[in-house]
């Protein structure tokens, strides 16, 4: 006689199969087909038991004093390995980001991309081309959106210089002041906690409120705990460095300690953490570029964590996938730019000795005719000294590859009208 398995045996079968792929929330589970013999509720109970078995608590607590926790599903563990291999070591890294002569060109481009998309996530409205032109030419921002983007760019450069320092409350305030400079409705709100009389909520474009942050009087203590966590305290349980960075991102966004600029500050702290722990490639990786393409998934990761017993795994699953895609995007970008550089070098063989910065600007000029170049912009694009940038452009003007004129007191440069044809003629005559 075959005995029907009891509920405990059915649940045990579910527990024997670890979650490898999607980390589903109840909102998804209730619409899927449960294992044979289980109701949706019993299936969900089995899933929750399995998750609790492997969960680790972190010092972050919700508004009721209950702790947040996380686990590491198989898919996240694999992505952590790929992050370790792809962002911490140099084996197999594209030569443009390991070559000290040309890496700054890629660094600046990546910082610009992150600055633009991080600002767009927070409501900045401008085109990428206009924003790039502002940063590369050192033009002052014309409006709040452009100011947000410039602030983010300067902050990301600052993060690189802060990578070796421990995280402190003052460093977080410093970062917040930088990302919000000149963009706040209350100018005095930069670099300080929000006050009890300053209401802050997290809501979508329709006004639907997703999150009420903790009370203002709790923020100093919560910030102290966050900084201790960022710096590796307490050290009772090992937490993978990349997970620590992702949890810091979530932590500051959850606490929402500032009147505005919380998202930009949270992402900046994430970058600090990744660089602090030796993931040097994150100088070049742009997570906001990926987040901006699917913002609903970003906000759902926060929401699912808060609505499922403070399970931050939802956020980790989302962020690990974002990081994976961002690293792949970086490799594709560098491959594309490397081909462009090689094509430019081939076309410029007959122009005598030109350095990589001059080759890059001529290549850009051929692809974007009519672009205006300035010494300050060239200096910023290649992270070089003013005199070096000036010499680069003046040499190209002397070779009659760029035209030079005065705009006010400044010198500006642009490609000659027949640049490509001239370069082809010189290549033909080159032995």
How would you describe this protein?
This protein is 58% helix and 7% strand. It is mainly alpha-helical and 431 residues long. It is elongated. It has helices at 7-15, 26-29, 40-54, 74-88, 95-98, 103-121, 128-137, 144-162, 169-180, 219-230, 241-255, 262-276, 287-293, 295-307, 313-347, 356-367, 375-382, 386-398, 419-429, and strands at residues 56-61, 67-70, 202-203, 209-211, 373-374, 402-407, 410-415. It folds into two domains: 76-333, Fic-like fold, CATH 1.10.3290.10; 348-429, Winged helix-like DNA-binding domain superfamily/Winged helix DNA-binding domain (Arc Repressor Mutant, subunit A, Orthogonal Bundle). The model has no long low-confidence stretch (mean pLDDT 84). The strands form three sheets. Strands 5-7-6 form a three-stranded antiparallel sheet.
Give a topology summary.
Layout: H1 7-15, H2 26-29, H3 40-54, E1 56-61, E2 67-70, H4 74-88, H5 95-98, H6 103-121, H7 128-137, H8 144-162, H9 169-180, E3 202-203, E4 209-211, H10 219-230, H11 241-255, H12 262-276, H13 287-293, H14 295-307, H15 313-347, H16 356-367, E5 373-374, H17 375-382, H18 386-398, E6 402-407, E7 410-415, H19 419-429
Antiparallel strand pairs: 1-2, 3-4, 5-7, 6-7
Helix pairs in contact: 1-3, 4-15, 6-8, 6-13, 8-9, 8-12, 9-12, 10-11, 11-12, 11-15, 13-15, 14-15, 15-16, 17-18
* Count of individual helical segments: 19
Number of domains: 2
Q: Architecture of the largest domain in CATH?
A: Orthogonal Bundle
What would you call the structural class? mainly alpha
How would a textbook summarize the main sheet? 3 strands, antiparallel
CATH class identity of the largest domain: Mainly Alpha
Radius of gyration: 26 Å
CATH structural fold name of the largest domain: Fic-like fold
Globally, the shape reads: elongated
Unreliably modeled segments:
none
Oligomer: single chain
Tell me how many strands there are: 7
Distance between the termini: 92 Å
């Amino acid at each position: 006689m075959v005995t029907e398995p009891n509920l405990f045996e059915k649940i045990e079968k579910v527990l024997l199969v670890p979650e490898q792929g999607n980390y589903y929330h109840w909102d998804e589970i209730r619409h899927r087909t449960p294992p044979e013999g289980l109701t949706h509720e019993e299936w969900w109970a089995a899933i929750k038991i399995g998750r609790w078995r492997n969960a680790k608590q972190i010092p972050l607590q919700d508004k009721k004093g209950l702790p947040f926790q996380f686990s590491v599903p198989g898919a996240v563990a694999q992505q952590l390995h790929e992050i370790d291999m792809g962002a911490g070591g140099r084996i197999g890294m594209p030569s443009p980001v390991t070559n000290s002569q040309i890496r700054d060109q890629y660094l600046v481009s990546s910082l610009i991309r992150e600055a633009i998309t991080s600002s767009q996530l927070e409501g900045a409205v401008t085109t990428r081309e206009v924003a790039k032109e502002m940063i590369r030419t050192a033009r002052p921002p014309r409006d709040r959106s452009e100011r947000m983007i410039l602030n983010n760019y300067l902050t990301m450069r600052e993060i690189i210089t802060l990578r070796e320092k421990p995280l402190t409350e003052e460093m977080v305030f410093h970062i917040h002041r930088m990302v919000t400079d000149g963009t706040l409705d209350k100018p005095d709100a930069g670099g300080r906690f929000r006050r009890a009389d300053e209401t802050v909520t997290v809501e979508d474009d329709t006004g639907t409120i997703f999150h009420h942050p903790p009370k203002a009087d709790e923020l100093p203590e919560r910030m102290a705990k966050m900084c201790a966590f960022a710096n590796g305290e307490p050290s009772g349980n090992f937490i993978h460095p990349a997970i620590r960075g992702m949890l810091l991102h979530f932590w500051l966004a959850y606490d929402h300690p500032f009147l505005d600029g919380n998202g930009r500050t949270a992402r900046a702290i994430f970058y600090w953490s990744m660089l602090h722990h030796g993931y040097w490639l994150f100088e070049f990786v742009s997570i906001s570029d990926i987040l901006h393409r699917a913002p609903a998934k970003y906000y759902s990761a926060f929401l699912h964590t808060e609505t499922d017993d403070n399970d931050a795994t939802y956020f980790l699953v989302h962020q690990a996938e974002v990081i994976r895609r961002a690293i792949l995007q970086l490799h594709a970008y560098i491959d594309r730019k490397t081909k462009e550089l090689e094509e430019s070098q081939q076309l410029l063989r007959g122009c005598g000795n030109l350095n990589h910065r001059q080759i890059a600007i001529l290549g850009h000029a051929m692809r974007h005719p009519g672009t205006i170049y300035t010494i300050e912009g060239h200096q910023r694009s290649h992270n070089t000294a003013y005199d070096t940038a000036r010499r680069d452009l003046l040499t190209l003007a002397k070779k009659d590859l760029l035209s030079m004129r005065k705009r006010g007191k400044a010198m500006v440069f642009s490609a000659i009208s027949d640049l490509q044809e001239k370069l082809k003629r010189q290549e033909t005559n080159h032995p």
